[in-house]
Amino acid sequence: MTNNVSVITLFTLSGLSGTEKYRIILFVLTLLCYCVIWLVNVTIIVTIIVDKSLHEPMYVFLCNLCINGLYGTAGFYPKFLIDLLSTNHVISYAGCLLQGFVIHSSVCADLSILVLMAFDRYVAICRPLVYHSVMTKHRIGVLLFFAWLIPFCLLLLSTVSTLTLSLCGSHVPKIYCFNYLVGQLACSFSVAHVAVPAFNYTFYFGHFIVVIWSYFYLLKTCRTSKENRSKFMQTCLPHLFCLITFAFSFLFDVLYIRFGSKISQGAQNFMAMGFLVIPPIFNPLIYGFILTQIRNRIIQFLCRKCRSLRLKS
What we know:
By secondary structure, the protein is mainly α. It is 75% helix and 3% strand. The chain is built from twelve helices and three strands, in the order E-H-H-H-E-H-H-H-E-H-H-H-H-H-H. It has a three-stranded mixed beta sheet with strand order 2-1-3. The longest helix has 34 residues. The protein is globular.
């Protein structure tokens, strides 16, 4: 591998340097984490799909949130597990761009779906009389279509802007590929590589404003009604917890970009994995424990399985 742009076909991921002694332990823990992610997300997805009483907007959005969690983690964990058992941590140019696209489009879709959930709770609590006329099946389908499409389009634009860069290096100082870090390897400054991410960050900052606005009206409405306060505690609390976990994960990512080179490799890896560990595990667990209907369906299913096993034995 040289610094000649015409022959750069592989990137070296240096995030795992110095972990040779702990590779097996890290592999087992990572595999366990990935299995837990699949278990909790698939449990919620199957419960919502199978139980027709859960075919309501809030649960449909939650189902999509869990599907997105599986989609995003699929872009990281299989490659990371292979790297833990390998001495050469490399990834192809195309694979690098694909990994960056999958992981970050998943993050953007996560926020888009959380915004839809905030909007759903706003209409349900602040405008209950028009809820069923506003949150129709057709409108939910359209909203979800754009919640998936827009992140894909924006990240595709970001990936294309990275693809057009002339690179003078092949060393990525992270455990997975990230468009920003690939862009840092460019031989010359590119306006597109700055303008596209700036637009994306501004666009999704607007999502946060929408969430804050909806919660402002939710809290204002709940102050005057005991029934609305009860609704808020039952359905908005898990959503609020999910937003907090997302915010903390986002903060870790920002801190990595800003201070990554000034801290230890272990701390860098911890911050880099925030989006890939915290939301995919905590989102389904939070909703599974707090939302009564989902919790009851899962408990009923487990009880039926236990009874059938006892009968067989």
